[in-house]
Amino acid sequence: MKLSLQFDKGTILVFGAEKRQLQYLESLMWDERTNCFRAPATEYRNIVTNLRKHKITYHDNARKFSAKTFPLKKEIKPRSFQSEAADAWILEKRGVVTLPTGAGKTILAVILIAKTGRPTLIHVPTIDLMGQWNAVLNEYFDIKIGLLGGGINDIQLITVATYDSALLHVSYLGNQFGLQVFDECHHLPGEQYKFTALGSIAPFRLGLTATPERSDGKEKLLYQLCGPLCYETHIDELSGTTLAPYIVKTIEVEMLKDDREQYEKSRKFYTDFLVKARISFKHPNGWSNFLRKTTESNEGKEAFKAYLKQKKLSQASEAKEELLWELIIKHKGDQIIVFTQDNEMAYRMGSKFYLPVLTHHTKLAEREAFLKAFRSGEYSILITSKVLNEGIDVPEANVGVIVSGSGSIREHVQRLGRILRARPGKQALLYELVSKGTGEYFTNQRRRQHRAYEGPALLQD
Amino acid sequence: MLTKDLLCFRTKSGKIYPKFIDPKNEIILKFAFELTELFSSNIGEKRETLENRSKIILEGLPLSVVVGRGLEKLLIDRTEFDTEIKNEVLALREKVFKNSSTLMQSNAKTVDHNSYNSSIESLKSYRSDLAASLGFEPENLTQLLYADLPPFQKVLKFRKINEESLLHRYNCAQVQGLLLRSDSIKLNLRNISTASMRQLLKFLRFNKLLAKISFEHQKSKSLQIVIDGPLSLFMHTHKYGLNLANFFPAVLHQSNWKLDATVRINKNKSYVMQLDHSCGIKSHFNHFLAYVPEEIQKLSQQLTKKMPDWKLTSSNEFLQLPGENLCFPDYIFKHISGKKVPVELFHKWHSGPLINRISQLDEQKDEPLIIGINRSLLKNVDLANKLDSSKYFSQFGFIFKDIPTVTTLLPRLESWLRSRI
Question: How much is the ipTM here?
Fold first, then answer.
């Protein structure tokens, strides 16, 4: 029997392999459960390359795609760094390209999809990005673009999927695409998302991100799944040319008297409990110990409430709200995005200032209407918690206000990236509001450990 | 399913023990009753109201708050909220934001940036001007602007559950929550009932899991099943944790079982979870054995009309094939002479198992069963060639389109009957 390959739920089954051939197929393992050889689907490229190299004939029942041509409707004149990135990737047709937000990652992908000429599955982290990619792909390709996610299941030769939906369908769709594009590919090494790459036979893979670094150090896995880092350039290298020049301004905000008293009281109760219960957050299990101990007694329950209260006050004190109002008025005529740490805070400010709030609760039609009104200048302010952190294209935004955020470097760089899309004469300004004399100061220090926050563009109030 | 923060367990000497609650404890049953009654009787109320009332009940629960929140989570999972888009709220927002844009621009002109009071005053006048332009008080407008957020959604439906079942569901969810973080299950079954075993294997397939089945003691019908997924061969992975968790309630229907699973609850440390039927958890799969697929019902009706000598019965038997391979036929056809013919079907997603089965049957000396193959499988050239060259298939195999029909089955049944005379 001739050797044959078959796709099975994210793996490749190999039938009819002779003993002497197995030496060329190192990734195969004998599967007693099904009595056949099996390999992860991602090994397809290696398996086929080795079979060809050693002139072993085979039936390929695994691959359900073939070469296509995707002519472009209109010409793209790539910027020099886009051409360099495309040339670097096309050598192996695998690899990660690191470009800052606003540098034209989507256009680079369009160029490479057309050059590669294989059915393509594009992975994006959010529904908003799915819509944005769909719009760009429709602008350049003369074929129907498929969508997978947000209740839509329409598979076409070029399809945009959310990571979540792609993960759900990889068992069935893992053999239908020759090229996988991973937008915001720093998500890919996640415990579950990695299976969208592992379970696919796609021989060609393109990872796109502004920030490949991960706090868990799993960048290595990213390069295994997508291919090595083949091109990178940074915000500060493109600032003033491809990206708008920017200033980051940190304002320490003094809490109002009442807030300060409540903060100190809550903070003391919470830290006293930590000492009494011998909990140290330097210990790896410190946080889970704290959570456990706060459920064991009434004092613990109160300590947990106190912890939440002091955190909430430092992130969203009344003084910050008042300062935000001042900034809104000061920047009359500017397009402002306000970032908060969570939805509750975003809606509180939205309800108080009567402003549009964009979170994951915002339904698709309304979020598109908000973005359209913002882009057209009809709305000059958008408040958001996390959904605008990544990818969404709002080139009109020139002022960002971080009312509160996490200690994540990536989140901070991504938020800065939202206001950097270049326009003639644009000067971007990012405000960070930090409650003076609170734990928020340290959170702020942690998230600024990136080259985008170094140099003369940084101001301290 | 319960999230990690709602799991209750203890660890000791490398083992992990889920903390169950006693489903017979009258005090806990009383709380569970109050909770289920609350959810049943609050249809039409706001989610926020329901959750506040639930909190009041749970404050009296003489157990950890995590237990209470776990019970509440399971009830919320059974509750349907009104998430429909509220056009009146959308329209209000649109008006408010249009007005706010205009007003904000004009308001800005009057602010002195160096004066704190000026800033506060400008906010006050902005709020009252904008609210008045739409006929509201400022605070009233603040309340209404985002009145379609989850806390304000109405309760539409609640799938009822009695208090004891809720406590069993909670215990089951504790195990499921740990299985979510496991890479495989080892299951030992004794005195297996073939009908429930067959259903168990159906659930395996339904959850896209794979199993290595081996006999411990053939006579006493004792099996060991190691359950994981296709990629488990290459890596320890939690990818199939959700599938294993969804599969677990099917295990509870076996009479004598023992389960071993390795659970990684923290990043770097694994624990062994061991459970058996003595845990006493009742499954919430109420109709585990009673379910009869629609296609079997249709085929049975056709048989009665066109093949009066044959009767379709549910398959309560499994066959042992070469090696340690087990086959659980889909149907058993019983002839009036008393002879029984097992029939196994292969659908379009079964090409791998079909190749194995053909190889096994071609090695058989007798004819243990008839096999039916979905036509779409023939698109696989290798498989089509293998079927062409299979003596067994030419005599005891048939091809069907959607479901087997009497016309395709009858010749094979008769052929099998002749071979037995």
Answer: 0.72
